[in-house]
UniProtKB/TrEMBL annotation, chain A:
This is Geranylgeranyl transferase type-2 subunit beta. The gene is Dana\GF14990. One of its GO terms (cellular component) is Rab-protein geranylgeranyltransferase complex. Residues 26-323 form the Prenyltransferase alpha-alpha toroid domain. Belongs to the protein prenyltransferase subunit beta family. Its cofactor is Zn(2+).
From TrEMBL, chain B:
Pfam families: PPTA. SUPFAM superfamilies: Protein prenylyltransferase (SSF48439). This is Protein farnesyltransferase/geranylgeranyltransferase type-1 subunit alpha. GO terms for cellular component: CAAX-protein geranylgeranyltransferase complex; protein farnesyltransferase complex. Transmembrane segments: none annotated. InterPro entries: Prenyl_trans_a (IPR002088). Belongs to the protein prenyltransferase subunit alpha family.
Amino acid sequence: MDFTTFVKPTNGGGDAEASNKSLQFWKHVEYIENHGKQEDDYEYCMTEFLRMSGIYWGTTALDIMGQLDRLERKFIIDFVKRCQCPTTGGFAPCEGHDPHLLYTLSAVQILCTYDALDEIDCEAVVRFVVGLQQPDGSFFGDKWGEVDTRFSFCAVATLTLLQRLEQSIDVEKAVKFVLSCCNQTDGGFGSKPGAESHAGLIYCCVGFFSLTNRLHLVDVDKLGWWLCERQLPSGGLNGRPEKLPDVCYSWWVLASLTIMGRLHWISSEKLQQFILSCQDLETGGFSDRTGNMPDIFHTLFGIGGLSLLGHSGLKPINPTLCMPQYIIDRLDIKPQILARS
Amino acid sequence: MGDSSDEEYLGADWLPYSERPEWKDVEPLAQDDGDHPVVSIAYSQKFREVFDYMRAIIARGEKSQRALDLTTDALRLNPANYTVWQYRRDVLRELKADLNDELEYLSEVIGQNSKNYQVWHHRRVIVEMLNDPSNELELTENALVNDGDAKNYHAWQHRQWAIRSFNLYDDELTFVDRLICEDQRNNSAWNQRFFVIKHLGFTPEVIRRELDYTMNRIRIIKNNESAWNYLVGVMRQGDSGSANLNSYPEVVAVVEELYQAGNRSPYLVAFLIDVYQEQALHLKASPDDQLARKVYGLCEDMAGKHDVIRRKYWQYVATHLKNQLSKATGGEQ
């Protein structure tokens, strides 16, 4: 799914063939490093509204590859700081835009990566997040009132990274709302009560329970099976029944299964083959499916998926927060993860 | 890409804002990317100009007809810019604009951007302001049926919102049935069916009817994940939510018949595994009882033949049952 309304153009062509079997490590480093530096102004303009997330995707992927120092720390931190809204405390994706929970989480993730939380007013961020919780426990994404389980995840993830989860929001009510989005047919979760189960939203909900230490509320065997069913003969995973496989869904399903201790239920080898087949051998970067155009979003989830599968040369990634594990350790945060079953 | 992409939206007779007399009092406000941007920015001229004027108008808080027209241009260039949508709503309120015109405009925009969060959110706010949902079923029907994506998540969310907020449940089952007939594997349609039935209430009659409906579909396409999930979901709603699969022996009998007739759809076999597991646990059978062995055998078939890619899951199911039964019978002794 496209969580961000960022639809990349796809062009069925491409050259992903037999040689696409090993990780093109340096090509990807180059791709991420140069991302946005090209004179591709149209894309740059069109993605302004999600720039903060774009930076999170790029820095995280590079850090997983041990190449974070290729980006300029000071410039990025200055950019992030400029995006904090002085009134609300939330972060905009880019100057001139309104603050939103999606970009607030991205901003906090970037600052954690650079160990730079002290550069911003963290209490203001906490106030922003707390102010978005609704009486039923759900969260608005911004003050304009869209409710979605994505925002429940963003809220608890932001507060966890700031070490303020328990003292700030009504966690019980937040839990109750996310549980009300569980579907009795397949054990999955949608964006709102009654909405169809969807792997991206399942990741948000399972991640939410991992952060609130409530994984016992999830029917992990039932949901685990539904998630396993997402694996197709190509090895790739889709987000809903009868949809096409996609690298980003592969991450969301894989991360959810990892959190639930069920990663081994799917075929890792076949999934790895699928992810590698989505590399662009010419430019670097990963696309959603074999042969399509790469983008920075799928590049993070391709690299992240390979890290979860234990690919050599990549740092371990935390499945709940989609950040390098060493940073989560440095922050002394321990999202709940179930033992292998 | 670049400019050519704009041309699709804004035609050749485009007059730059800087050359329009009615805009000469506005000083465009360029984007400040710092003196050392991560990226070198070469905005397309038209794009840059429209957004420079947009920034200027937002900065001075002008809410006028020309500001509204400017948001139209800006959103045509980038419908995902949620800040501009928000500003547009402020302008509409200030001008006390006819919101029916806005709905019409939005129907067109949604037709071209049906997978964009912002356009649907804007639609919802306008419908709430008007308190008139009379166009929403048709709008979402167009997005789901006529434009060809029957699984558009945004459209289904909007439809559920409209149905729930304005109590529009009456004809929804007819619509859902039509979509299921068109594509029996449409998981979104099955989900919508559950949404409607849950609202009507899972009375014993409703459950019977739904089980019949679903089994009739399964007879046509056995290997349909969505129908099987729906079937189990409905079966579990009986006895105020405490029913198990064996509460409906007639359904189990039909599935066993299909199995006897040679069908080995993984969903069908998975269903039988659940049924026999439930029986074994209910009877507190011993781990090497015949029922338990039936489950192990079916799991082995799945792992080895029908669902090899998920063989580790099926091995887990068998081992898990064995452990549970050992615990149960061990505890009794």
